[in-house]
Structure formats: C-alpha cells, structure tokens
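3.2 Worked example (two chains)
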Amino acid sequence: MKKRFTEEQIVRIMYEHSSGKKVKDVAREYGISENTFYNWKKKYGGMSAKEIVRLRQLEEENANLKKLVADLSLDSMAQKELIKKFCNPE
C-alpha cells in the first residue's frame, strides 16, 4: 500500500490541528477522512518528526528480525525432520 503522506507531513497536519483548526477542516484541506486523522493522532500524537522517523526505522528493523526468526525456525524444523529420518530408521 502506497502512503500519500510522509511522517513529517503527518506531524505538520497534527500541528495544524493543535493550533486551533477543526478536524473536519484539516481533513478536508488534505483530502483525508476524519478516521484517518484520528488513527494518525492515536499513532503519532505528541511525537516530533525525529521520533516518528525513528519509530519507522524500528518498525522496519522489527519486521526484518521477524522474517529472520521465521526463516531460522523453518531451517531448524527441517533439520529436526532430517535427523529423525536418518537416526531412527524403521
């Protein structure tokens, strides 16, 4: 899924709301739904642009680590099956 807004843009949109603009006006101006705004607020509320960039980096690193663990788990299971097959001939 392609994201239309960068984290820095989202921070700027949040700042506009905190400076007094209504959610409905901000959403209309940027072409987003109010639900999208509230999802952003839940995820990014109170964060600076640097913190959001760091959050994205950590999420990417976490995804890579999860893939690595899944690959290693599959390798381990395959090795165990091979050991069972060759060590317990029936």
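3.2.1 Second chain
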Amino acid sequence: MRFRHPDGSTVHLSYCTNVHPAETLDGVRAQLRDHCEPVRRRLGRDRLGIGLWLAKDAARTLVNDPAALRSLRAELERRGLEVVTLNGFPYEGFGAEKVKYRVYRPDWTEPERLSHTTDLARLLAALLPDDVTEGSISTLPIAWRTPYDGDPGAARTARAALTTLAQRLDALAELTGKSIRIGLEPEPGCTVETTSDAIAPLTAIGHDRIGICVDTCHLATSFEDPDTALDALAAAGVFVAKAQLSAALHAEEPHLPDVRAALADFAEPRFLHQTRMNSAAGLRGTDDLHEALDGHALPDSAPWRSHFHVPLHAPPAPPLTSTLPVLRSTLNRLVGGPVALTRHLEVETYTWQALPAELRPRTRTQLADGIAAELTLARDLLVDLGLKELP
C-alpha cells in the first residue's frame, strides 16, 4: 500500500511475512499464494506491500539462480504484491517449535551475518518495483548481550562487518541504481537494547547506509518515550531506515492475582518475551515472561510490559492491554510532521500462532482476516495524519 505524504514523498506500508515462516523458495512461493494474495484481496487493493522474510536457504537459492529470482519477481507482480523492504533479522529456523535465543545467531561478530545480509541486499535491489529506487532491510541489533558484552573485541568486529556492508551497498547502488539501507533494530536484552543504545555504534560507523529500524513494540517494552527517542536520533544524525508497527503486552497492576493469571496465558515456549518494568530506580527486566512470573525475579510495584507482539486491532481483554498508544505517538512523529522521517512502514505481528488458544486463528481465512484488519487500522492512522492513499 502506498501513500502520498504532504512533503510529496511516497510512504510504503507493508506487512511482514515472517508470520508465515518458510525456509525454502518453494515455501516462500506458497506464502504468496496461500496468505499474501488473499490478504490483498480482502483489502480490495490492486497492490499490497509485503516485508519479505527470506531465510538463509531461500536467499542462497535465489542468489545462485538468476532465473528463479526473475520468476519470483514475476510472481510478485502477477499476484499484485510488491517488496520494498526485507526483514533480515531471523537467519533461519523462525518457524521452529522453539526459537527463543536462536533468533540472535549468527550475530554481527560472525561472518555468516555479513554474507547473508549482503545476499539480501542484492536480492532486494532486484525485487524492487521499477518505479522505486530505495529499499530497506532490518537486522538484529548487533548481538544478544551475552557473550558479546564480555568480549572486548566484539564491538570492533561488528563495526568492521557493518562498515564492509556499507561499502558493498555503495557498490550495489553504483551498479544497479538502487539504494539499499540497513536498520539495526533495538530489542530488549540485546547489546543495543534501546534507541539511545544505538547512537554510539551507529555514529562510530558513520555511514549513511547504516541506520536504525524503530520497532514500536520494542520501544514500548523498554518504556522509551517516542518523542525523546526520535529527538535524540535526529540530534545524533541517525536516520530511520524503516519502522515496524507493532504493539507490546501491557499489565498495569502486575501484583494482582488475576493480572498474573492473564499474563501466564501469554508465557509460551516458542518465542522470547522479554519483560520490563520502569521505576524511579531505572529499568528492570527478565529475559522471558515466565521468569518474571516465577517467584520475585521482577518487582511488581509498577506496570510491566512484555515483548509479545499482540495484534494491532485486537488488544487483549482486561485486565491486560496493549501499547498501541505508543505506536500512535511514534507514527505521528515519523510521518505526521511536515517531512516524513521514514518512508518504509511494516506491520510485524509474527506471534499470531503463539497467542493464547482462544485468541489464535484456527484457519488461513481467520489469519488473513486478522492481518487485513491490522493493515486497515494502520491505513486509517496514516490517513488521519494527512497522508493520501494511492491507487
């Protein structure tokens, strides 16, 4: 979905296909047929943006087979789908029964991460629509904090890898005329946990190909104020390559038994749900929701937020809620002003099948309806901010 911003630029809205995990090219094609095109049809649009997730094996297949890449591009066009952004965070195994900490490997100290992201950039340059010259790729925020934080050479290694990537992106732009930019995606528990944590490593790299991806669930989980966060990024000269529109789980009174019982329904075995509370003493947290609920690992004298991407249009029932207000505030700052601070927006609710059983979609039809409803909410927010939807 495309929108005209008052500044004259085109803002792209998509949804991320990591909600339909596939490890192979055949699996990606099945996603387009079984999920993405049906969502487009439900929305009644001729064109729908998707934030494509390509696992390592699928990406390698496309890099090694130009005919397959041309065929995928043709299939996207035939199904009324377009790609201007990729989710490069998960490397492989995102559809496994237990993902947890695995999603952070390889990190930016390992050569596989540089190789994979280089592949993704080349593929995105080839998949961009003819009338689009800029693409974006979100990636993990350097590394999970352990063992990275205990390795004195890790920061140098990661910085060297990202600098090499920036140089490769410069060469790619010169060769293809397509500008691909990377966004480190701050996430609780990582060495770059917040937007403020991203400033030092990004300014150390100092290249306009490497910026930040603002995920509004992660921002909210860490209790960051959108205005403060975005002002600091602007002051440091850090650009927003893309924004992921997502909402975290919020518990206002986690000391109450009924609130803890409701939270326990979201403590599931597949994904990591980092949980945080903010107090006068600062930010406290656990690596997973079940750890916060077990014993007294996390104080419950102040609200909790958990890294669980809940559907934008359907917050959980009381006594829980979502951080949709943080998304609204962030979006207002990103595209509600006289100049768009980013042009790539991606709805990223990958946890549909991890929701409590009574909230989980049971059929493809129900999942497509839910994704379409999320995109409709995002579309309405953009229109309310003065953007005009394009055909």
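3.3 Remarks
The radius of gyration is 20 Å.
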